[in-house]
Amino acid sequence: MPELPEVEVVRRGLHEHLVGRTFDAVDILHPRAVRTNTVSLSEVLPGLTITGTGRRGKFMWLTLSNEAALVVHLRMSGQMLVGAPGVVQSPHLRIRALLGDVELDFVDQRTFGSWQYAPLIDALPAPVAHIAPDPFEPSFDPVAVARRIRRKNSAVKTVLLDQTVVSGIGSIYADEAMWAAGVKPTRKARALRQRDAVALLSEARSVMARALEQGGTSFDSLYVNVNGASGYFSRSLHAYGQAGEPCARCSTPIEKTVVNGRSSYYCPKCQVL
Q1: Which residues are part of the catalytic machinery?
Q2: Under 8 Å between Cβ of 53 and 200
């Protein structure tokens, strides 16, 4: 599933190409892509202008001229592609929207993703209001979030994936942040010192910032930006997916374990906290 850097790459592309454009027509090609709506997107979106874009964690949205939002859930395989009308002919095309001389296409092979029309509440779409701030938001308080992490009795890896504690960190960047901070994924969060929890959040932000610079992480063709290009951060991973490979710090082979049903990769020698 795309994590914060991948979603942010897509949001930036949408902002660059779509802000100021008006929906002319919206064609729904698969009902699952609009399953969370109580209104018809084909009826409500035409005539509305995109005034901006937003993101919190893994959630992104287009703000609309009627003070509502179009929330986009990429889920496992969703793609937002912007280009000339009629170019995208994928069998997995779920929604086609025409905005002047530009077409916005939602392609989703596994049909887990969706578009959702929603009101804005204090500048956030209603479906996103329950999500905790992410490390890139100005209001993010790492000291306070570290305290919240240390109140949890779960493994550190599990807490980092809890989007009500801190949003945007998925399995890839959780493993990379724990490797960088020297924290073992199975360690109980409540056993962390405050300074270690703060350092872990700092490393999470740092690794996601580096991923952003490289267009995110692509392991296959399912994650691409709005122009269809892949990200290259997978070449810079130190822990995630590296089982059996030598640790970049100490050369000890990276090991794989399972934490609360999620695969986790770590160095058994370096990650001792």
Answers
A1: 2-3, 58, 262
A2: no
